[in-house]
Design brief:
Protein Transport Mog1p, Chain A, 34% strand, two-stranded antiparallel ribbon, alpha+beta
Length: 190
């Protein structure tokens, strides 16, 4: 009996050990669903549809800035920061400032994909920047009517970047941002 146990131990310990690969927690993502902000309390020259699974808050760091909001996803600990400004003959400057902010991620990005936004019917024009690699922001965008309004957005997760584990959530929220941009409407001309 002792000899059988010793032979089992010797034979059992001679194989190559192969560690299991890292695994990530499965994230169940809800079916996308969208709602517009409550227009009774909304005093901004734009409106859009945002994810039903997020909520809109005033950007507390910039209370003096009208129509600066955060769209927060509590389940994902992610925030889309929205900043609005009027155009006062400075459209080129605002576009360039937005580009500079986006390009701050170039050192960590393995690629930056740009998508043009052009909706002549709604007068919504702009760019979406999608960052690949271990960047702090995964997507940024700006939209404008090119005469009066400029809205910038940026997506940040409040966690250390790990694109492998966050990939499904990043793709989900990117879809929400694309819907936000497609549903955006200017509610005033000035």
């Amino acid at each position: 009996m002792v000899l059988a146990c010793i032979s089992l131990i010797i034979v059992g310990c001679q194989g190559d050990f192969v560690p299991k690969p890292k695994a990530y927690v499965r994230i169940d993502l809800p079916e996308p669903s969208y709602i517009a902000p409550d227009t009774n309390s909304w005093d901004c020259p734009y409106t859009f549809e945002a994810s039903r699974y997020s909520y809109l808050t005033v950007d507390k760091r910039h209370r003096s800035k009208p129509c600066w909001y955060n769209i927060y996803y509590p389940k994902f600990d992610a925030t889309i920061h929205l900043t609005y400004s009027k155009i006062d003959g400075d459209l080129v400057t605002q576009i360039e400032d937005n580009r500079k902010l986006a390009m701050k991620h170039v050192t960590k990005a393995t690629a930056i994909n740009e998508s043009r936004i052009e909706n002549n019917t709604s007068r919504v024009f702009g760019l979406i920047y999608e960052f690949k690699g271990e960047t702090a922001s995964d997507m940024q965008f700006f939209v404008t009517d090119s005469t009066s309004h400029f809205l910038r957005g940026s997506l940040y997760f409040n966690v250390k970047p790990n694109k492998d584990s966050l990939a499904p959530v990043i793709d989900y929220v990117k879809g929400d941002i694309k819907h936000l941009v497609e549903s955006l409407r200017w509610t005033s001309d000035a």
